[in-house]
Amino acid sequence: MILALAVAGVCSLFGQVDLDQQVWRMRLFHLAAAAAVGAALAAGGAALQGLLKNPLAEPYILGISSGAGVGVLLGLAAGAAWAGLTWATTPVLALAGALLTCAVVYGIAQHRGRLNPYSLILAGVIVNAFNGAVMLSIYLFVDPYRIADFARWAMGNIRYDTSLALLVICGACVLTGWFVLFLRAGALNTLGLGDEVAATTGVAVNRLRIETFVFVGLMTAAAVALAGPVGFLGLIVPHICRMAVGPDHRRLVILAGFAGAIFLMVVDTLCRTVGPAVGVGTVPVGIITALLGGPFFIWLLRRRFAEASA
């Protein structure tokens, strides 16, 4: 991701006019965006699963992705034209929606100072459904000629006209959140032993939860600003990585980020090659991740039921 941004940035500084060079620059931007989105959602999903001690937790299921999407679409409906939405406003609107959703979900699930992980999942599902209804309602207030663009973005689509400025801002958000989650990985490991045990070892449990939600929200907002809400990637990739390196978050958070970046780059490449080959055009990556993640989610749920009844 960093290499792609660097090469693309150098190209833009010299004002390339050759068509082939412009195409390569566009492809590099697209590749960097896919890597940033994949890393953000996968690393964020791994952190949330460790924080909540629940394998079903991830930004999309908890409603964080849809909350960021609502923030962006509300800004558009308020008067900003899609083509005129600047690189600065998109991440800010997405971050506002993501953090507001985190606060609402956290507040619903918390009872008498304690956080029930399963209540949090249920609260996330409810808020996610509400956010989806809000996003559909916003379409009534936007330019009818741009509804198709908005709908495609809401499917989880990496745009071809992503600017270098937007990539730099969102990439910085992803790297910052990823680094902070890595620093807190040891505390996440301790939290897995239980809240009381973690507290006796010096872990500020409530502070750890708030920090994790804030920085996962930051990373998710960056991902949504680049590609719209992309679901289930933060569910699939961390589980595969956990099978490879175990539950140690000091390794899991790093590996999940890299694996998520590679995974989404591969999926995006397939969407841009297979789709046009069969005559349906470029398929949004969010559709593919949802098709893969839905059955995976059901499998995890049935596995949890089997473990609980054993």
Describe this structure in words.
This protein is mainly alpha-helical. It has one domain (2-305): ABC transporter involved in vitamin B12 uptake, BtuC (Orthogonal Bundle), CATH 1.10.3470.10. The chain is built from 13 helices and 2 strands. It has helices at 2-13, 19-52, 64-77, 89-109, 117-138, 147-154, 164-183, 185-191, 195-200, 205-227, 233-245, 249-277, 285-309, and strands at 110-111, 114-115. The protein has a two-stranded antiparallel sheet with strand order 1-2. The termini are far apart.
Element-level helix/strand string: HHHHEEHHHHHHHHH
Helix proportion of residues, in percent? over 70%
Strand content: under 5%
Give the strand order, joined by hyphens, for the main sheet. 1-2
The name of the CATH architecture is Orthogonal Bundle
Indicate the CATH topology: ABC transporter involved in vitamin B12 uptake, BtuC
Secondary structural class: mainly alpha
Low-pLDDT segments, ≥5 res = none
